[in-house]
Amino acid sequence: MQYLPNILFFLLLVAGVGYFTKNIRTVVRNIKLGIPVAISDHKKERYGNVARIALGQSKLLKRPISGALHAIVYLGFIIINIEVLEIIIDGLLGTHRIFAFLGGFYDFLIATFEILALLVLVSVVLFWTRRNVLKIKRFLSPEMKGWPKQDGNIILYFEVVLMGLFLLMNSSDYALQQMGAAHYTQAGSYPVSSLFAGIFDTMSQSSLIVIERTAWWLHITGILIFLNYLYFSKHLHILLAFPNVYFGSVTQKGQFKNNQAVTAEVKMMMDPSADPFAAPAPDAPPPPKFGASDVMDLTQVQLLNAYTCTECGRCTSECPANQTGKKLSPRKIMMDTRDRLQEVSKNIDANAGVFVPDGKQLLKDYISTEELWACTTCNACVEACPLSIDPLSIIMDMRQYLVMEQSAAPSELNGTMTNIENNGAPWPFNQMDRLNWAKE
Amino acid sequence: MSDLLKVPTMADFMAQGKQPEVLFWVGCAGSFDDRAKKITKAFVKLLNNAGVEFAVLGTEESCTGDPAKRAGNEFLFQMQAVTNIEVLNAYKVQKIVTACPHCFNTINNEYPQLGGNFEVMHHTQFLKTLLNDGRLKVEGGKFKGKKITFHDPCYLGRANGEYEAPRDLLRKLEVELVEMKRCKTNGLCCGAGGAQMFKEPEPGNKDINVERTEEAVDTGASIVATGCPFCNTMMTDGVKHKEKEDQVQVMDVAEMIANASEL
Asked: How far apart are CA B102 and CA B245, in angstroms?
């Protein structure tokens, strides 16, 4: 019976990490539904981007208030995880504060955790105020109604509870250390939690141990629940930020990729020896689809983008179309892509690993043509994203599908394209008049 | 005025067995749009004045395909691209300058994978090199001390990271350069990109060019400078919409330099 807590802890850890791993494998499987992209170029630049944009949060800090608050929570998240390591070892071995042997450095570590925990609490309260009290436009968009709003708040509540439990655990531990309770060796420095350790003055040692143990268990359980919540929320960015920034574009933003399937067709058209009436070889693959109407037509990087998006809305708040009341919101493009991908994922799970067509697709069932045609391709959304997500590439791929597969461009654009095709200019002017300006 | 402009074509150069220093890619707007033609002419005057041996393709030029690509017609874009590339390669063109950021972006970034490798410059970048080489003189003239704001064209700025060349030229004009709140990487689009120029905007509560013009007018600038024929149209329309034609002018950087030297 002596080892019961250790065994319980082990089971809890296995369950928590196991379920999380299962869901991450689902994410990987879903991303692989996309078109593979071979990215092995610009390694140095890509790692540089990860260091600067993902770790260094350079783009987040462009908005100083939310950027600084985020940096605090992020720093807290990273550093306090050292404490989680100690908790896991203690839990498995039945020890208490196993890193205490570090002496003065341990004091420094615990003190840092405590100060960060307090700063995180303050930041989270400010975040909550920004989301719920202040009327910040990017949190009030139509796509942020309901679950996305709730999701954002739930994550903040998680942080409050976890930091609260962490400080409660430390303060009761500190009180027990002061009492000289057995098993509670004098270790650590508690600049924050010692401040309110006074509330335990009247308590007996045994009830204090109950409080300390409860806080300890709830804290680690909470962390495991939070870990597993990631998959169900917008919060996967804490992990996916790194690969996403790595795979982000390293070329000029103005360079839109050329559609290879189209290049093949154009090459054939330009080849005088190609027979346009030749029947395809019997084993020829079906002709490729031009552009994207569903998530499977997007690249794996675009799908990774969708899982990485944390719905901050900086893209939308910079979007000229959105600012002038159009329906387009780049954030919604990413949210829709992810929602559709999750729908496809559930479909695959329910049908023994095979996607059974459900009569739905990303285009029109999620993203309307009105949204797609409102884009000016100005790259403001791409520039604004703190994690190198590219909503514009999805918009362009879907426009390609509309125009090349469905001939469904707005009628004025059909006229423009006819002009380009017939006389080499978007307007109905004769190509032979192209140099008239020099004679006017 | 027309007898002052020297606009040789690539065919002319080829007939003489010569290569020009640079090909001036005029673009559709620069060729056909009445407002943009003035920018084209101003730029040609500067080239003539600096003694640059340039040529145009003239009737052999065709749309780069930018509006087609951004409208989703990748097929039309690539057809335009490969035919243009064939013409350019046939003339052994190496260096291209264009007064349109859309042409600049497309030829610079999207032609290489289709076999078109050229050194491409936006006209503000080219003018700056002329200035640095002492071939072009930029003086304040009538713009000296005037309050001027620069509207970053998306396809020059964010799309290609060029924010300074046009500003450096404006500073040379000794103007008082005032920035809009949304400038450089945060610049607000004029509303024309992505083939929006050729269609009505989607329903909303405001036109993008009006939003941008309001911001430009709020700086108190008497001239909104830009480097794109489409931005020029959108901003000019915006100024008309706000009935500010008497106070605010929209001009291309090249026009301003030509004007200042009274060319």
From this structure: 27
> Given A327, A435, A437, which is nearest B59 (Cβ)?
A435
Contact A404 B75 (CB under 8 A): yes
CA distance A338 to A315: 16
Mean pLDDT of A410-428: 96
What six digits make up the tokens of A309?
Answer: 């998006």
Of B76, B161, B194, the CB nearest to A420: B76
Boundary of a domain, candidates B85, B105, B131: B131
The reply to whether A197 and A313 lie within a common domain is no
Asked if B41 and A437 come within 8 Å (Cβ–Cβ), the reply is yes
In degrees and rounded to multiples of 5, residue A35 shows phi and psi of -75, 130
What residue of A is the nearest CA neighbor of B6? A438
Q: Which residue of A has its CA nearest to B103?
A: A254
Q: What is the ipTM of this complex?
A: 0.95
Chain A's closest residue to B41, CA to CA, is: A438
Whether residue A380 lies within 8 A of chain B, CB to CB, comes out as yes
DSSP annotation string for B121-164: EEHHHHHHHHHHTTSS----GGGTT-EEEEPPPTTTTTTT---H
- Which residue, among A379, A376, A360, A244, has the nearest Cα to A295 in the 3D structure? A360
Range of the domain at B93: 2-131
Amino acid symbol at B90: A
- Structural tokens at position B110: 């999207």
DSSP-derived 3-state class of residue A156: helix
Q: By residue range, what is the domain housing residue A261?
A: 254-270+289-424
Distance, in Å, from the CA atom of B236 to the CA atom of B248, rounded to the nearest integer, reads 9
Q: Work out the minimum CA distance from A86 to partner chain B, whole angstroms.
A: 44
Tokens 């300890």 — which residue? Answer: A216
B99 and B145 inside one domain: no
Categorize the per-residue pLDDT at B2 as very low, low, confident or very high, splitting at 50, 70 and 90.
very low
d(CA A46, CA A248): 8
Q: How far is CA A169 from CA A162, A166, A192, A193, A303, in A?
A: 10, 5, 12, 9, 40
Of A258, A415, A434, which is closest to B31 when you measure between CB atoms? A434
B54 three-state secondary structure = strand
- Secondary structure of residue A234 in the 3-state scheme: coil
pLDDT of residue A1: 63
Q: Any CB–CB contact under 8 A between A417 and chain B?
A: yes
Q: Answer yes or no: do A101 and A231 share one domain.
A: yes
Same domain assignment for residues A296 and A225: no
Q: From the list A251, A425, A439, which residue is nearest B32 (CB)?
A: A425
d(CA B37, CA B253): 14
The structural domain count of chain A equals 2
Q: Residues B212, B214, B216, B220: what is their CA dihedral angle, to the nearest 10 degrees?
A: 180
Q: Are A330 and A195 in a shared domain? A: no
Using the structure block, give the residue that is written with the tokens 């350079």: A58
pLDDT in tens, A38-78: 899 999 999 999 999 999 999 999 999 999 999 999 998 88
Q: Across the strands, what pairs with B119?
A: B95
Phi/psi zone of residue B191: left (φ > 0), alpha (ψ -120 to 50 degrees), beta?
Answer: left
